[in-house]
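Researcher: Structure prediction, please.
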Amino acid sequence: MTVLDSRALNRATLARQFLLDRTDAPVLDVVAHLCGMQAQEPQEPFFGLWSRVRAFRPAALDGLLTGRDVVRTHLMRRTVHLVTADDALAWRARHDTMLRQRVLTTYRRELAGLDPDEVAVAGREVMADGRPRTMAELVDALAVRWPAPPRRALGELLVAALIPMAQLPPRGLWRAKAGVRNVPLAIWLGRDVTPLSPDGSDEVGRALVRRYLAAYGPAASADLRAWCGLAGLPAAVEAVRGELVAFRDERGRQLLDLPGAPRPDPDTPAPVRFLPAFDNALLGYHDRSRIVDDTHRGLSVAGARAVLVDGRVAATWDLSAGRVIVTPLRRLSRSDRDAVAEEGRSLESFLSGDNIEGSAPPSR
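Model: Predicted structure follows.
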């Protein structure tokens, strides 16, 4: 079985993530290919798309959000993701059990004795009128019946687990500052969530395996679970194993992949890239050593924005008065420093509004 070293896996990841070469693909297609983008910080997907899409315009993503082609919703790992409307509807039922278990585990004491099914029925009755509500407003409507649980616990149970919700614009629009207003996903999109197959065939699970490998492979089953948070996927992996090719990494783990997916030469040059906070290029693996040193692994869950140099996390970046501030994590060569500075200037130009035609004005 062929062994893929860390550099080979790194180049494969960069290629799948459009970080080796920016793509000309439409933004909707990019979001779909990436299996969504983690988006609890509303502005971060814009940075992630800028690093991946050639001549990216924020107005393109704004239009997809207001046009209901993409939505912000709780999905993988119980985090807010920006996903296509089609994927939100197709994947949500497969994530329901995980979402519920994670909230009930997090708030085990606070929600003890509560019947989630009764809460779900009551919540749907409140939301049936289609009026957007904040989590606080939804909790207010149910607090008379369930006064004991802390408001945060009851609210998260409702909007992150029991009722598939969409977070409505202007939340998530370019330079918008807006709180979260929720509407049931089916009402916002005008289509119901796709139910699971009654025969237990788990077609959704099989599709998730294929889609994940297309965007993140080669990868181990543990990486797949780290990305989505779902249990019960080994059966889906086994169901499609005959379609896949197998490798091993330097640690001896078996890695699976789609046979025709890109696996570039490990010596392929990798340009500097600026990643947003919580980018799934880092979070989408159990073993993240292909892209970040173990010493700095915690940066990915701490919300640090990463700079890739030669394909690996070598610095963090932040913004101050429209300027990009880079903090190296290791000594960089002069040529690397120059490349980082050049990419930083390009990002500053993007942020200043240069070459951004038709982008939406800030929401108040």
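Model: The longest strand covers residues 312-320.
Researcher: Thanks, that helps.
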